[in-house]
Amino acid sequence: MRVLMIAPPGAGKGTQGARIAAHFGVPHLATGDLLRRHVARGTPLGRTVHAYLDRGGLVPDQLMQDLVRKALADATAGGGGYVLDGYPRNPAQAWAAYQIASSIGATAQVALHLRTDDDEVVRRLLTRAGIEHRSDDTEPVIRRRLALYHEVTEPILEWYDRRGILLSVDGMPDADRVTAAVIPALEARRARHKARPGPVPELLIAA
Ligand code: ADP
Questions:
Q1: Would you say 58 is a known binding-site residue?
Q2: Which residues contact 98 (CB under 8 A, 6 or more apart)?
Q3: If 0-12 CB within 10 Å is exposed, 13-18 middle and 19+ buried, where does residue 38 land?
Q4: Angle at 167 between CA 162 and CA 168, to 5 degrees
Q5: Which residues take part in binding ATP (predicted)?
Q6: Confidence (pTM)
Q7: What is the CA radius of gyration of the chain?
Q8: H or E element that contains 146
Q9: Ligand 1 centroid to 203 CA: how many Å?
Q10: How much is the pLDDT for 48?
Q11: Strands of 110-115's sheet, edge to edge?
């Protein structure tokens, strides 16, 4: 199973991504977690990106591309799948994700979108702020992350829809109910994909 997760901050990408990965026995590659680990370890990449994370901005595309290329190559080395959570987040990243994945014969079968309401995600993130103390969970930074999501991330959903791999699920119910909706829908997509492989790249470009 090869899944991309595209959803606003606070939609439950992390929770659902981990459950989906466990269910299908594939690695959960969360770009935010990978970046925060670099920051915590004080690596050169971590030192470069920490200000973007703190401000709720997007890390430059080229850095993300290098990070994702390596993570996907490692994850699929044994021929397995992945849940890529938090990438792509803009049109350039969507194209890069496609190119990276096709170069290793592992393009996504599903782009999973969790639909949410802005007020609810702000409420969830402010609640989480009291528990996890993430540096970007303050109200102004949350608003900035949400605005960026609407501006540059949401438009890529249409591309996945045209490719025929978009799966959009209501992310508002509690986490267990979302999981109960997502897993069977992914199973159904996987069965469909086995029966009929995805469109050829030429058609994608034409779209
Ligand atoms: P959220 O979705 O709640 O914002 P994440 O953990 O997915 O949380 O991401 C946290 C931060 O990591 C983002 O605000 C951004 O700074 C950085 N980041 C994660 N993924 C990407 C990406 N694909 N492109 C650019 N920056 C990213």
A1: yes
A2: 107, 204
A3: buried
A4: 105
A5: 10-15, 128, 173
A6: 0.93
A7: 16
A8: helix 139-148
A9: 30
A10: 98
A11: 28-30, 82-85, 2-6, 110-115, 166-170
